[in-house]
Design a protein that fits this description.
Bound molecules: uracil
Helix content: 40-55%
Strand content: 5-15%
Shape: globular
Number of strands: 14
Number of helices: 18
Radius of gyration: 26 Å
Distance between the termini: 63 Å
CATH class of the largest domain: Alpha Beta
CATH architecture of the largest domain: 3-Layer(aba) Sandwich
CATH superfamily of the largest domain: Uracil-DNA glycosylase-like domain
Largest sheet: 5 strands, mixed
Number of domains: 4
Structural class: alpha/beta
């Protein structure tokens, strides 16, 4: 009997290396005993498992599922997976045999992992730790059912690229710092602060979007199982919100017209209470404070908060988008939603570091149309862009970038005051007043909307080229 000792439970690379060695050595599943190492000691129990693997051809889907299922807490998983890969070597159709008990187990385990991953993506809540050199840091505590941290960390890396964060679980921690993702040992809940201002905002927002007329308690429990509640700031409000649901429905019926997002009022009151700024705007911090009180156009009525630009005050390149989207409106930061994720990827391909850029928008409040529980993006009008230029001009005056890259038509209008097509401006470097250069390109969400893959790939290439041009000019 061969004994394999796995030092890191749930580590796919370790299991795969052992399984490869065993397969190459022709060791049948019944002749292997898999166990975890309590001490985290030596890798494999005997030399046969470290045998060279050669090329073993396994169905790709099985390998992908194994990578997820290895995170399952069932102690039998390494052995069960090995049995399946052993069988798959001789039976290419194995995964199609849906009545096979081992395949059935695999599918169910995979479903449990995918569900756990989905819940973790939805229910991790960060608490603010502090700020250093203009970069904020956050930490979150989460207790997933399975050991899924490594499966989920890349999602948070993409989504919260611009800040430093750590996610602590009982098994391991993921740390994103200085644009590097590392893993460390498990932690405890008391390593993460209990609450912070972000949490307050989140709770108020949750209260605001909670629609008593649509409460379906069973569906809510299914989507947000009780075990996650203790770490969700908004969960403590669920019971009172539900209890008051009937009265709120009545009030909604009576008022009939839509009510402004209550957070708007709360947010603004809070900001006004805390700050006594005059009209002096000498720094980006003053500017952010002033923007947060902006009522220059009606867009402030429904948005959660204004989103000021972000980045170093001495940035050589300023990127201007259209307006904050749904996520940006909640987090108060530009480009942290899906368009921001895509932008991060493209910036990387163009050799630009996001943290060295100043990112802002032509319009500082999110414009949307409520549709059920969702808020659908609406383009700002030319008038709204023109009114908001007051802020953009102040950001330009403070940062004094050498190059401005406009993302999309609204940004182009915001910067130039003229409505021109991107096509007519693209591919050239234009001069703005004050010796600033302008590069006009597309908005990342344009790529997200393109159904034609080939066209999207071409457009993406051109987008990267436009950004690379900005990099070269700045150098
Ligand atoms: N789209 C934008 O134009 N700006 C953002 O900040 C996010 C999405």
């Amino acid at each position: 009997m061969r004994e394999v000792v796995l030092t890191v439970p749930g580590d796919f690379a370790e299991w795969r290396s052992a399984a490869r060695g065993l397969l190459a050595g022709g060791v049948a599943p019944d002749d292997v005993s898999w166990r975890g190492s309590a001490e985290g000691a030596s890798l494999f129990g005997d030399e046969a498992t470290a045998a060279p693997a050669g090329r073993l051809s396994l169905p790709r889907e099985l390998v992908q599922i194994a990578e997820r299922v290895i995170c399952h807490r069932d102690a039998e998983v390494p052995a069960r997976l090995y049995r399946l890969v052993w069988r798959a070597l001789h039976d290419r159709q194995l995964l199609a045999r849906t009545t096979d008990p081992e395949v059935d187990w695999l599918r169910k385990a995979d479903k449990a992992i995918r569900r756990d991953v989905h819940k973790m993506h939805a229910f991790v809540r960060f608490r603010r730790l502090g700020e250093e050199e203009g970069r904020e840091s956050f930490a979150a505590w989460f207790e997933p059912t399975h050991r899924i941290l490594r499966l989920t960390a890349p999602f948070f890396q993409r989504r919260f690229y611009g800040m430093d964060w750590a996610i602590l679980t009982p098994d391991a921690r993921a740390i994103w710092q200085d644009e590097t993702l590392t893993y460390g040992p498990g932690g405890t809940k008391d390593e993460v602060p209990d609450s912070d201002v972000v949490e307050d905002q989140w709770r108020t927002y949750y209260g605001a979007i909670f629609n008593p007329a649509r409460v379906k308690i069973d569906a809510m429990r299914a989507e947000m199982p009780k075990k996650y509640w203790k770490n969700l700031p908004e969960a403590q409000d669920i019971a009172p919100l539900i209890a008051g649901a009937e009265a709120r429905v009545e009030r909604m019926r009576a008022t009939a017209v839509s009510v402004a997002n209550p957070l708007t009022g709360k947010w603004r009151t809070r900001v006004q209470d805390q700050l006594t700024f005059g009209d002096e705007i000498g720094t980006l911090a003053d500017l952010a404070t002033a923007v947060s009180r902006c009522t220059r156009c009606p867009l402030h009525c429904n948005a959660t908060q204004a989103v000021a630009g972000e980045g170093p005050g001495a940035a050589k390149i300023m990127l201007v988008g259209e307006q904050p989207g749904d996520r940006e409106d909640l987090e108060g930061k530009p480009f942290v939603g899906p368009a921001g994720q895509l932008l991060n990827e493209v910036l990387y391909e163009a050799g630009l570091e996001r943290r060295r850029l100043f990112l802002t928008n032509a319009v500082k409040h999110f414009k949307f149309e409520p549709r059920g529980k969702r808020r659908l993006h609406q383009n700002p009008t030319t008038a709204e862009i023109d009114i908001c230029r007051w802020w953009l001009d102040k950001e330009r005056a403070l940062v004094q970038p050498d190059i401005i890259v406009t993302l999309g038509a609204s940004a182009l209008r915001g910067v130039t005051g003229k409505s021109a097509s991107i096509k007519s401006m693209r591919g050239a470097v234009h001069e703005l007043e004050g010796d600033t250069k302008l590069i006009a390109t597309i908005h990342p969400s344009f790529l997200l909307r393109l159904p034609d893959r080939e066209r999207a790939a071409k457009e993406r290439e051109m987008f990267v080229a436009d950004l690379a041009l900005a990099r070269k000019l700045a150098a």
